[in-house]
Amino acid sequence: MGDDDRSSYAYSIAPAEHWDLRDVVALIDLKHKPVGSTEGHAVADTSPLQAARVATVPERLARARAAVLERNFSALAEVVELDSLMMHAVMITSSPSLMYWQPATIAVMQAVIDWRRAGLPAGMTIDAGPNVHVLCPAESGAEVARRLSRIAGVREVVVTHAGGPARLL
């Protein structure tokens, strides 16, 4: 964590082959969102929840790192979902309020929670928009994609995997 774009950066904590995970993306809306992420960041501090979210980042980050290094999918899903929902809580309670979820977004969220309770390893995170990313072990990717494609309002399902270090395109 830094003070600006130049001093803030990410680094890999494990090589891509450390854990074979999939990101199965449920595309709900293919259009550009009306308010971009840069504008959303600018109003985040108007939310009464933002200070608490920022203050608890180190603890969630430590939990996520440990889960990845231990290959503990349950722990990873729990912290990823918590962080995503906290971000959206900030967005929803900002001024102006940024609510991107659509009925299909909520349907996917509930389905993922239900699948995990029934034993399918899956955890969700939501980008700053209506689309839902469902993380899962590689061996569950096809089943997650199949189930997502059956949810009303999911326009497309894309399956991706860890692709190695970041690089400029």
Described by strand count, sense and barrel closure, the largest sheet is: 4 strands, antiparallel
Strand order in the sheet with the most strands: 2-3-1-4
Any idea what the radius of gyration is?
16 Å
Q: If you consult CATH, what is the topology?
A: Alpha-Beta Plaits
Contiguous low-pLDDT stretches (5 residues minimum) are: none
- Based on secondary structure, the structural category is alpha+beta
Count every beta strand, where a strand is a DSSP E run of 2 or more residues: 4
Strand content: 5-15%
Q: Using the alpha-carbon principal axes, give the shape.
A: globular
Number of domains: 1
Mean pLDDT over the full residue set:
91
Helix content: 40-55%
CATH architecture: 2-Layer Sandwich
Taken in chain order, the helices and strands follow as EHHHHHEEHE
What count of helical segments does DSSP give? 6
Oligomer: single chain
CATH superfamily: GHMP kinase, C-terminal domain
Terminal CA distance: 24 Å
Indicate the CATH class. Alpha Beta
Essential attributes:
single chain, 169 residues, alpha+beta, Alpha-Beta Plaits, four-stranded antiparallel sheet, 4 strands, 42% helix
